[in-house]
Specification:
Layout (H helix, E strand, L loop, with lengths): L1 H10 L1 H38 L4 E5 L5 H5 L7 E2 L2 H6 L4 E7 L1 E3 L2 E3 L14 E5 L8 E6 L7 E5 H7 L6 E6 L2 E13 L7 E5 L4 H5 L5 E2 L1 E6 L5 H12 L5 E5 H48 L1 H9 L4 H37 L16 H27 L18 H18 L4 H18 L4 H16 L1 H12 L1 H39 L4 E9 L1 H8 L4 E16 L2 E10 L3 H5 L3 E4 L1 H4 L4 E5 H7 L6 E5 L6 E9 L13 E3 H7 L5 E8 L5 H11 L7 E4 H8 L1 H35 L1 H9 L4 H37 L12 H18 L1 H8 L3 H5 L4
Parallel strand pairs: 6-11, 8-10, 17-22, 19-21
Antiparallel strand pairs: 1-13, 1-14, 2-12, 3-13, 4-6, 5-9, 7-10, 8-11, 9-10, 15-23, 15-24, 16-17, 16-20, 16-23, 18-21, 20-21
Helix pairs in contact: 1-10, 2-8, 2-10, 2-11, 2-24, 8-11, 8-16, 8-24, 10-11, 12-13, 13-26, 14-15, 14-26, 15-26, 16-24, 16-26, 24-27, 24-28, 26-27, 26-28
């Protein structure tokens, strides 16, 4: 039986190649993701290791330092700590480092100086330390408060030379520096822009204080290990809860973990594509083996007649599937290595040097890749294998094709899953909507052969009238085996359902946002930045002629305690006019009470869940600050579309200042004075802030468009899924049609003998392919719209109150599906038309 399996696999290798491609595609995504993530993690770990001191003392922060700098707060330690660390036995040298992320660096024309657009700019003090990330390549080191050294990659890409004047925008304010040197990386560029200032003036320039540093770095003396030195430093500093002492290895691990959080987005996206391709590939493999088993009914019956048991036949089919999985997985691993190579090379566009990077291909990657391929193929072939094992020995004496099994069981099971699934989708409960989505998918997979007979004649009626008997032949061929048609169309159905669901949700979000934005947003100009806005920005804007009302807002992570229950939230601070500017809605209390000193505004739903109302006390604490008791002064219900979760708690700016004295503004909203053109006001405000090119000044329309970017990203993801699904579904249609042509060789020969021309044969095959594609698209659109409507109901409380079906997108999907169906039929139709009539009619059916 093993020899028979190997012979069958080799004999049908041409018919199995498309199934192997589907396996290879899913394995390639899995393997490529693992190789890429492991490689990038190793590369950045090397960079972090080379750029870390033997022992580092940093301020302990309750949230990520990057989130603190958003509100203008930079975690620091006293500069006097450097001398204490320097005096620890075993410390060869100690240095106080000043490192500030997300500063702005611009040339004299106001253009950002960076490696790539939107890359991070890091400012730090110059230090000729062994752990410094750079070394001087040309020019000299900075001396004085207005000199700087720029990294070579940023200088090259922004065309900055020694002697150039740049504007650096830090939290204390903007200032000009002269580039006196260019520095090259000691390890490799990582995509960040580095600007290095004179070490003696870095803290004053970047933080606004000269008596602090952001970390203390210690170099171990010869013979002293990092662990021993860390223990000594910790003992000297005492159990200070505000400090963290790490070795080089621990610092590297922490940096890699932060990188891992960023890589998660890439990892989830690629593995999602892998999961989708594997799911769709299962349909293709199932269909291929079902057709091969049906084709070999007489052969299997003969094997049973000469002594092969059911278990032997079952193992034979599963062995072929396992061989297919091994071959497909092998090609998938090779393709995954190529995908990882491409992704790694893509990093060079973000400023990361990738020329000498060695990809990390671990044994785990190979095991996971082969596991995915084998599980997909063997599970997909399980039902065809069981079907083959049930072939009776007498089948060797009958026609090769057995009558199709009845669909009554599938109908009962499908309806049993569909009815509760639809109910769960309509419930509006997020958990039930997920369950409903899974139930309706199972229902459609079960019912897709059942629905073929009533739906396909309707879909095919236009071209049946247009092409007469050829159109009817194409329709009848698609209806001949509903299971096969359903399995082929099912692959396309799943992808289009995902696209339609995402399109409905994003369209509903967009329409809901437009409605709520027009109703509640009353600012004419919005001023913001990637950095916190210093107090001078608000003062400058307030002095611009034409400014009517100005509202400042701040934001920070915070902990709110209600009745003994503590919860981490984002806390907003705002001027008193924020309600009129942004259209806040209150169900209890008011803005006057909620933004008063020592008061707070809560989300109405959250307040109801925890059992508090206006006048009740709550406790609020910001990172690094003391807890403060506040009274609930108002309950809000407004929620921007797509924000998700509860409305952020909000306090007045005076209260926010008490909680976080160093916090700066996050956004400033401006209303034009009566008779002032908003567009002209934007120009005036931009001119007044010309010395701060990092600050964006947007009109109401600009701000609205920026808020819609998320929907465009989601739609781009949906179209990417559609493209991936169409590719795999095309493989399935091509495979089905190719095997169908082989099955119907004698029939096609008879049709040719009866007068059907080559052109008509090609048309018949193309119309059969078009029927399958349109059938899959129709069910996919119905399922996807239902999913989207259910998801919209689940997030209605988050501001998505309008259901919008994107008919344009649906039209594009239908047109694309039509073209895909016609494209898939090109090769099988050509092969069918070129069959020799005499040879075809004599083929043993």
């Amino acid at each position: 039986m093993l020899k028979a399996s190997l012979r069958n696999f080799v004999a049908h290798r041409g018919r199995l190649v498309l199934s192997a491609l589907a396996v290879a595609l899913s394995v390639a995504f899995v393997a490529g993701t693992l190789i890429f993530v492991n490689t990038v993690s190793a590369v950045f770990a090397d960079v972090a290791r080379a750029s870390s001191a033997d022992v580092t003392v940093t301020p302990k922060t309750e949230v990520a330092a990057k989130r603190l700098t958003r509100s203008g707060r930079i975690p620091t330690v006293p500069a006097a700590l450097v001398d204490r660390v320097r005096g620890v036995p075993g410390v060869a040298a100690a240095h106080g480092d000043v490192v500030v992320e997300d500063v702005g660096l611009f040339d004299r024309a106001g253009e950002a100086v960076s490696v790539v657009s939107d890359s991070s700019t890091i400012a730090l003090g110059w230090c000729a330390c062994p752990y410094s990330p750079v070394r001087l390549a040309s020019g000299r080191e900075p001396r004085g408060p207005n000199e700087a050294v720029l990294d070579a990659e940023s200088a090259r890409r922004s065309r900055v030379r020694v002697g150039a004047r740049l504007r650096l925008v830090a939290t204390p304010g903007p200032f000009e520096v002269t580039v006196v040197g260019i520095a090259s990386y000691r390890v490799r560029p990582t995509g960040d822009t580095l600007v290095l200032l004179d070490d003696a003036h870095a803290a004053a320039r970047l933080i606004g204080r000269s008596d602090v540093v952001t970390q203390v770095s210690a170099t171990a003396a010869t013979g002293v290990s990092d662990e021993v030195l860390r223990a000594r430093v910790t003992a000297t500093l005492g159990a200070d809860p505000g400090l963290t002492v790490r070795t080089r290895a621990e610092t590297t691990t922490a940096a890699t973990e932060r990188l891992g959080a960023m890589l998660t987005v890439v990892e989830v996206g690629l593995l999602g594509c892998a999961g989708l391709s594997a799911l769709v590939g299962v349909f293709l493999i199932f269909n291929t083996f079902s057709m091969l088993v049906a084709r070999r009914t007489r052969e299997i019956g003969l094997m049973r007649a000469i002594g092969a048991s059911r278990a032997d036949v079952n193992r034979s089919v599963l062995t072929e599937a396992a061989l297919l999985g091994v071959v497909g997985s092998t090609f998938g691993l090779v393709a995954g290595y190529g995908l990882a190579t491409g992704l790694t090379a893509l990093l060079s566009r973000f400023g990361v040097a990738t020329g000498d990077i060695t990809l990390v291909f671990s044994p785990v990657t190979a095991v996971v890749g082969y596991g995915v391929g084998l599980v997909a193929t063997v599970s997909a072939s399980w039902v065809p294998a069981r079907r083959a094992s049930r072939v009776a020995p007498m089948a060797a004496l009958r026609e090769a094709h057995s009558p199709p099994a009845p669909l009554r069981g599938r109908t009962i099971l499908g309806l049993g899953a569909l009815v509760p699934g639809v109910g769960a989708l309509a419930s509006g409960n997020p958990a039930l909507v997920c369950v409903g989505g899974a139930a309706t998918l199972v229902a459609f997979v079960l019912l897709i052969p059942v629905l073929a007979r009533p739906l396909i004649p309707i879909l095919a009626s236009p071209y049946c009238r247009a092409f007469g008997r050829v159109g009817r032949l194409g329709r009848d061929n698609a209806l001949r085996d509903p299971r096969r048609t359903g399995a082929t169309a099912g692959a396309l159905m799943i992808g289009i359902a995902l696209v339609a669901a995402v399109a409905v949700v994003t369209s509903s979000m967009s329409v809901s946002f437009d409605r709520d934005f027009a109703r509640s947003f009353h600012a004419d100009v919005v001023i913001g930045s990637e950095q916190a806005l210093s107090a001078q920005v608000a003062e400058t804007v307030r002095a611009v002629p034409g400014v009517g009302t100005q509202v400042r807002t701040r934001r920070s992570d915070a902990w709110i305690t209600v009745k003994g229950h503590t919860r981490q939230v984002e806390l907003d601070g705002a001027d008193g006019g924020v309600d009129a500017m942004l259209g806040h809605t209150y169900v209890r209390g008011s803005a006057t009470r909620g933004l008063a000193p020592d008061a707070i505004v809560l989300d109405a739903d959250y307040a109801k869940r925890v059992g508090v109302t206006v006048g009740d006390p709550v406790e609020v604490r910001l990172p690094g600050g003391a807890a403060r008791s506040l009274r609930v002064g108002g309950l809000r219900t407004d929620q921007p579309p797509g924000n998700g979760g509860d409305v952020n708690p909000m306090v007045g700016l005076d209260t926010f200042t008490l909680l976080a004295p160093e916090a700066l503004d996050d956004t400033i909203y401006v209303r034009a004075a009566a008779g002032v053109d908003p567009g002209g006001l934007r120009v005036a405000v931009k001119a007044a802030l010309a010395d701060r090119p990092n600050v964006s000044v947007r009109t109401r329309a600009d701000y609205e468009q920026s808020r819609k970017r998320m929907t465009r990203v989601l739609l781009g993801l949906a179209y990417g899924l559609l493209a991936l699904t169409v590719v795999i579904a095309l493989l399935g249609v091509v495979n089905t049609l190719a095997l169908s042509v082989v099955e119907r060789t004698s029939e096609i020969g008879v049709l040719r003998a009866l007068g059907l021309s080559r052109r008509q044969v090609r048309r018949m095959i193309r119309l059969e392919s078009l029927t399958i594609a349109l059938y899959g698209a129709t069910l996919g659109l119905a399922l996807g719209v239902a999913w989207g409507a259910g998801a919209r109901r689940a997030i209605a409380a988050d501001g998505v109150g309008v259901l919008a079906v994107p008919w344009t997108t649906i039209g594009v999907v239908i047109v694309g599906t039509t073209l895909a169906g016609l494209t898939a039929a090109l090769v099988p139709a050509r092969r069918a038309a070129r069959l020799d009539i005499a040879a075809a009619v004599t083929v043993d059916r």
